[in-house]
Amino acid sequence: MSPAAEPVPDKPTRREQILAAAAELFARHGFHGVGIDDIGSAVGISGPALYRHFRSKDAMLGEMLTAISEVLLDGGQTRVDSARGPHDTLGDLVRFHVDFALDNPALITVQERNLGNLTDPDRRKVRALQRRYVEIWVEVIRAAVPTTEEPTARAAAHAVFGLINSTPHSRHLDRAQMADLLTGMALTALTHAPL
Amino acid sequence: MSPAAEPVPDKPTRREQILAAAAELFARHGFHGVGIDDIGSAVGISGPALYRHFRSKDAMLGEMLTAISEVLLDGGQTRVDSARGPHDTLGDLVRFHVDFALDNPALITVQERNLGNLTDPDRRKVRALQRRYVEIWVEVIRAAVPTTEEPTARAAAHAVFGLINSTPHSRHLDRAQMADLLTGMALTALTHAPL
DNA sequence: CAGCGCGGTTAGCGACCACTAACCGTCATC
DNA sequence: GATGACGGTTAGTGGTCGCTAACCGCGCTG
Fold first, then answer.
1. Which of A42, A84, B39, B158 can pair with A170 through a Cys bridge, CB separation 3.0 to 4.6 Å?
2. In a domain, B4, yes or no
3. Integer distance in angstroms from CA A30 to C1' D8?
């Protein structure tokens, strides 16, 4: 067949394969619980070959977490930019985060658990991105529920992240049901609870 | 002053000191990210002295997590035993878990993140205890919101755990406000969302 | 006061881990 | 058809980690 003409949805590059495998392993065993050889053999190569693609193990985690944070921030900003009204925007934001969590359970887990294993510069960068993402949520929450104080909105946003990110720890429902459940609970908690 | 007559609330034993320090460290750096020497120096002794109190590093984590699971299960059972009505019982359960999470952020974090670092027998034991705790929640949820299917109730329980356990990651409010916020969000999500 | 258990100490051992060194086959290009 | 970038390989190295060994001072108790 003709080369490079198939409807292949972007064959993942080796770097991406490695990051995906590493994310799975980091999520299951923790950053320090995974060896360089474990990651290598998870993608069919062995051990030090990884250093053809990454400068260090720390760099893998750093790239992984900054990528996640950028995707979240970017997606959040997009939802806000196409705002139709405060309540719809909040709904879009919730649905976006729910979809991301359901589609990337390993990444969500790593971001939640392994922030402390980043190098200092990487952690600063990721923290900054995360802060901007939270600020988006704070503004949208306060637009939808105007009586909410800013610190309360921030705490509520974190609580909703916890609710949604709990996904990886429970697989009792199928994807669609889970999405509806989490979206409903998150929106109800944000808009009907006494904040 | 007279020796051993003050209102000291049970001076913590050495084992307890060690477990508390280890919990803090495990929460911050992950199980494999903490060395035996780190734990030792956190309680003022150094390194291998820990082996006078625990058989291994694994045993510390094991004892820590089984203790947490037993406290939760026990507290949950107590709340159910003194039930006055479905809604009150659910409220008691939520408030109990919120209090525990706010008072023991490190323990909650360790239980969430480091279950995978337990030895197989320890993990089985902890999992069994956790399952029983979740089943308490499932029954109470279904009593308070009778239209809820069992798998949905289980997923909702996990989601609420995620919401409440998000506490350690956000300290924007003082304890009382945080307790009210989390309790309100959890109860609203459970009883007013379309489960 | 001899004996001993309790809870410390330091030194060291074997395993493992992140990473480097040195080497090699496969292409694409000139 | 030589060249060199690319992405692999195996062997090895320095450092760290969990744990054991050997030793020791203190406070009970018979």
1. B158
2. no
3. 27
Q: Within a domain: residue A14?
A: no
> Which residues of B spanning 6-65 put their CB closer than 7 angstroms to strand C?
14, 40, 45-49, 52-53
Q: What is the pTM of this model?
A: 0.94
For residues A52-83, b (16+ Cβ closer than 10 Å) or e, as one string?
ebbeebeebbbbbbbbbbeebbebbeebbeee
Kindly report, residue by residue over A97-122, the tens digit of the pLDDT: 999 999 999 999 999 999 999 999 99
Which burial class, exposed, middle or buried, applies to A10 when counting CB atoms under 10 A from its CB (0-12, 13-18, 19+)?
exposed
- Taking CA–CA distances from B111, the nearest residue in chain A reads A113
pLDDT of residue B8: 47
CATH of the domain at A74: 1.10.357.10
- Cβ contact (<8 Å) for B163 and A28? no
Q: How many domains does chain A have?
A: 1
Tell me, yes or no, whether A121 lies in a domain: yes
Nucleic chain C contacts, protein chain B, residues 148-177, CB cut-off 7 A = none
Of B31, B158, B180, the CB nearest to A166: B158
Domain that holds residue B130: 57-192
